[in-house]
Amino acid sequence: MILISCTSDEKIEDTLTTETALKQNSEPGAPMLFATLPSGAMGSTIGPGGDLFVTQSGAAGSILRIDKNTGEVSTFASGLPVSPAPIGGVTDVVFIDDTAYALVTLVGSFFGSDSVNGIYKITGPNSYEVVADIGLFANNYPPTTDFFLPEGLQFAIETYQGSFLVTDGHHNRVYRVTLEGDITIFKVFDNIVPTGLEVKGNTVYMSQTGPVPHFPEDGKIVSFISDTSEVIDVASGAPMLVDVEYGRGQNLFGLSQGSWIGVTDGDAAEPGTGALVRINEDGTLTTIADELDRPTSLEFIQNTAFIVTLTGEVWTVDNVASPPFGI
Description:
Layout: H1 8-25, E1 32-36, E2 41-46, E3 52-56, E4 62-66, E5 73-77, E6 89-96, E7 99-105, E8 118-124, E9 127-133, H2 134-140, E10 154-160, E11 163-168, E12 173-177, E13 183-188, E14 194-200, E15 203-208, E16 220-224, E17 232-236, E18 241-246, E19 252-256, E20 274-279, E21 285-292, E22 295-301, E23 304-309, E24 313-317
Antiparallel strand pairs: 1-24, 2-3, 3-4, 4-5, 6-7, 7-8, 8-9, 10-11, 11-12, 12-13, 14-15, 15-16, 16-17, 18-19, 19-20, 20-21, 22-23, 23-24
């Protein structure tokens, strides 16, 4: 008999490797409340220090920073335009290096103010400058689909090849905006209500709720490479898909706000009917977490999903992606 001995360090390393493997192969955790915000929330991004940054919608006019480890909430920027609509005002945020750019919507003359619908560069805790007046552009170049908001409803912003992409959920298109504020129409759609954005390499992924009454089969994740490329259906089957994000490795996820409340255009989903779903290779969806209350935005830090809700909460779901994780 040959006995092979191990050092203490080797035993510790083996134990950690086993524990890591077990954790990676275990099921996703239950949704856990991570932070409670002062008011309703819409968009989010991962910014400096790897923390979560969340926009306060409606009458708040602010961007909050949430410590990724403790959940401590602090104000990153305030004094931005507000809106009487709960999904209006500061609807999304993105960073280029350490500079934040906020997307503002549902303000302006239609809502009784002189604020600009568009992209704002954050220059200080209480200061900003307008980069692009998307509302004016939308008003000057109206869509071919039906609309009643002349300046549209800009929903999400994402960086793309040194510029920005912005979805307009009311005018059914995607804009491309340069850092100098030049605006072009990047993609035009039928009445599909484009919402969230994700960019991986040269590929743009976009979620859509589909037209009222937002049937599950109309909730889709699509992809395209350029302004002239074909739009490809990636997955479908969840009502009111409002965001799409890559998690760890090659795992792509969608965020369903849930079953439409069924009153008027622009209404949110029924409370407690939202879900986090994983996109499968065959275009189907696997539910990772359900009974979410009107989620609006999704981000990932390592293998944990951070879900922002219209009610002003941030929830986490651990261990969401399955191995192998790739790069």
